[in-house]
Every structure is written in structure tokens, then in C-alpha cells.
Amino acid sequence: MKIYTKTGDKGMTSLVGGKRVEKSSVRIEAYGTVDELNAHIGVLIAELTTLDAPFISEEIEVMERIQNSLFNVGTHLATEAEEVEKIPSAMLPQGEVERIEQHIDTLSESLPPLRGFVLPGGTKAAALAHVCRTVCRRAERRVIALRKETEVAEEVVAYVNRLSDYFFLLSRKCNFIEGNNEKIWSNTCK
Predict the structure, then answer these.
(1) Spatial CA neighbour of 139 closest among 36, 24, 14
(2) What pLDDT digit, counting tens, does each position of 57-102 carry?
(3) pTM to 2 decimal places
(4) What is residue 118's DSSP assignment?
(5) Rounded distance, CA 112 to CA 6, Å?
(6) β-strand partners of 12
(7) Is the distance from CB of 34 to CB of 97 less than 8 angstroms?
(8) What is the pLDDT of residues 127-170, one digit of tens each?
(9) DSSP label at residue 90
């Protein structure tokens, strides 16, 4: 099977169910940004595998679950509910929002209190987690823009929103375990 089909050469692509839409559509922007987030998570996982810390294997497991769930989110966003019945893979697994919330709470409890706005950076893993956080926020904005045009499940919006919180705390954890002090924003406009 050839990987290229040439069907997108004129700027169109197919949704789940076969409907053709422009590649610049809000829908494609939404699930394309979710896909971009998934790729950044892959880079973060690759970096984390180079570290020797007790929490790494658990976080890699959490992120691999997130990557799988993001495929569900992408399928959901690529399906026009008005045109095609949503297939099971277009829905998040039951309890996924709550699962990530519990993990966020666990991460938060393991960290010192925030002292201000954290500047992205520190270790390479922490910086990559911040990239994931910001791409996730962009994905959330794209999903909300799509929601203005069509039905998007509330749990999809909530899940993407929680993920940015997760990546923020993961960045803090990466710096904390490596002994890096967080750099706090210094308001020079005082």
C-alpha cells in the first residue's frame, strides 16, 4: 500500500465517513493541533527515558495513556456528528477526565507551593513539558472554536483543558527532582 494517495493535492481531506473538507477548516485545525500535541508528547517521553528518577516510569505510562486518548479525541473531532454516527473510538474512555484529575492532584501534592508565575525552562524535560502545555492550550482554543460550529463532547473539552494543567505540573516535577530551582517571573514594570 502506498502512503501517498494524491487526494489532498488540491487542499481537501476526508473526515471520518468520507466527507471532503478543506484542510484549512476549523475542524482540521482542531484535530491537527491535537495531533501536534501528541507528537510533542512523544518527544517528551523520549527525553524522559534518558533520566534516572523513580517517578519516570509512572509518568511515561500516564503519557502513553494520554497519547492513546488523544487519538480518541482526534477521531471525535474528525467525525461530523450530524453526518455520521460516532464510532466507539471517537469517545474518550469512561472516567478519563477523572483519572487525569487524580493524577494532577497526586503530582501537585508532591511539589512545593508555587511562589509566582513560573518561567518555562529548567531541565530539558521541564522545558519540553512546557511546550506540551502551550501546544495543548492552542489545541484547546481550536477545539472551542470548533464547538462554536458543531457538537463537541463536553468531556473532550474538559480533558484537553486538564492536560495543560498536567503538563505544567509535570514541568515543575521534572525541575524539582533534578534539583533545579524554578525561575519565577520578575515583574520589571513595577
Answers:
(1) 36
(2) 899 999 999 999 999 999 999 888 776 677 667 789 899 999 999 9
(3) 0.88
(4) B
(5) 53
(6) 22
(7) no
(8) 999 999 999 999 999 999 999 999 999 999 999 999 999 999 99
(9) G
What does pLDDT average to over the chain?
86
Q: Which residues neighbour 126 within 8 Å (Cβ) at sequence distance 6 or greater?
A: 120, 171, 172, 174, 175, 178, 180
Report DSSP state, residue 94: T
End-to-end CA distance of the chain: give it in Å, rounded: 62
Residue with cell 517521553: 45
| Cβ atoms of 176 and 107 closer than 8 Å | no
Q: Which of 45, 36, 151, 137 has the alpha carbon at shortest distance from 91?
A: 151
Residues 6+ away with beta carbon under 8 Å from 127: 120, 121, 171
- Let me know: does 43 contact 105? Beta carbons within 8 Å: no
From residue 17, give the alpha-carbon distance in Å to each of 9, 65, 79, 81.
20, 26, 7, 10
Q: What is the dihedral of CA 16, 156, 35, 55, to 10 degrees?
A: -140
User: Which amino acid appears at position 6 of this protein?
Assistant: K
